[in-house]
Amino acid sequence: MCLGLPMTIVETDGVSGLCEFRGEQRRVSMLLLSNPPVGAFVLVNIDTAIRLLDEDEARLIASAIAGLEAALEGEESDRFFPDLIDREPQLPEHLRLD
């Protein structure tokens, strides 16, 4: 399984960019995006920025990743998923069998 990381662009030349997530930096391909600016949030999968994220979406994805890490360590993870407190998770339309 591949997991997309919400990374912040630190520097870019239009073809590749240096991006950061939780203190780790890596150079990623920017070829799928239309020249995003330094400071923008991008979803990175297999060292390729695949789409732009807004700040709220980047924060929710980072929180979900922290929640998965907590669950794997046997720790309480509900606090990492505040958007699910008052509702059950729903499958996207294309995955529903009904």
Describe it for me?
The protein is an alpha+beta fold and 98 residues long. It has a single domain (5-88), classed as SH3 type barrels (Roll), CATH 2.30.30.140. 18% of the residues lie in helices and 32% in strands. It has one helix at 55-72; strands at residues 5-12, 16-21, 24-29, 41-45, 48-53. It has a five-stranded antiparallel sheet with strand order 3-2-1-4-5, with helices on one face. The chain starts with a strand and ends in a 26-residue tail after the last helix. 15% of the residues are buried. The mean pLDDT is 90. GO terms for molecular function: carbon dioxide binding; iron ion binding. Belongs to the HupF/HypC family. This is Hydrogenase.
Summarize the structure.
With 98 residues, the chain is of the alpha+beta class. It has one domain (5-88): SH3 type barrels (Roll). It has 1 helix and 5 strands; from the N terminus they run E-E-E-E-E-H.
